[in-house]
Amino acid sequence: MKLVHLALAAVATVAAIVAHAQAQYTLEPANPGPLDTVSVRKAFNNEDGTRTRVVMSGNRITVRLQSMDAFFPEPPPGLFEQAIGRLPAGTYQVEVVYVNATGEVTSSLGTTSFTVAPHAAGQPIDDHSDIWWNPDESGWGMNVAQHADGQLYATWFLYAADGSPAWYVMPGGRWTSAREFDGDVYRATGPDMAHFSADAVTRTKVGAARLLVGGSEMTAIFDFDDTHVTRKLVRLGF
């Protein structure tokens, strides 16, 4: 019986050590989609240093942290975060380890598994967040912000017929395919910043827009304020 108790105690100890190691870091988000950037997060300490390397072999990912003794005697409070990146649909394992100056593993913080959900039908394949413009028409353009769920928010900076600045927004919409997004467009007006009041802001629906996207190019079809315009746009490089 004594040997049985010792064996059970040893198993419990090993399980506790493994659970403790795995609890020393988290993966964010816990249930990523194909457009989410997966990151390792943990409380910061001296061992995290400034030299980090992410290695991937098949579906196994290793985050290697090398101690640089950058902070002595106490590290600043905060959170250490290392981005792994966006991954295709599938199941992955992540292990976080500490290595010494010669690259040898000195300890492990445990291994965690996660699954990236498959790309949903009718959802975008890429992230189209950027500033878009037509190089032949410098002076106007469009900002696009895309969330991980695929929803878009677009704003136009352009001019009205009389040459005055005009402010248009597309606060969301719907993907009709993985490459086509449609949404309603609103014109917003309001006071200047020195006299700003949210009560004085007006939002008027003026039409719709269709964005046909593919990599670094976009065809934007604007149909608002009694104007129908099609423009070829590219990502603004800077």
Please describe the topology of this protein.
Blueprint (H helix, E strand, L loop, with lengths): L1 H21 L3 E3 L9 E6 L7 E7 L2 E7 L12 E7 L4 E10 L5 E12 L13 E4 L7 E6 L5 E8 L5 E6 L3 E4 L2 E10 L12 E13 L2 E8 L2 E9 L3
Parallel strand pairs: 4-6
Antiparallel strand pairs: 1-2, 2-5, 3-4, 6-7, 8-9, 8-16, 9-10, 10-11, 11-13, 12-13, 13-14, 14-15, 15-16
What is the gyration radius calculated from CA atoms? Answer: 26 Å
What is the total domain count? 2
Largest sheet: 8 strands, antiparallel, barrel
What's the total number of strands? 16
Strand content of the residues, in percent?
over 45%
What separation lies between the terminal Cα atoms?
72 Å
Share of residues in helices: under 10%
Overall 3D geometry?
elongated
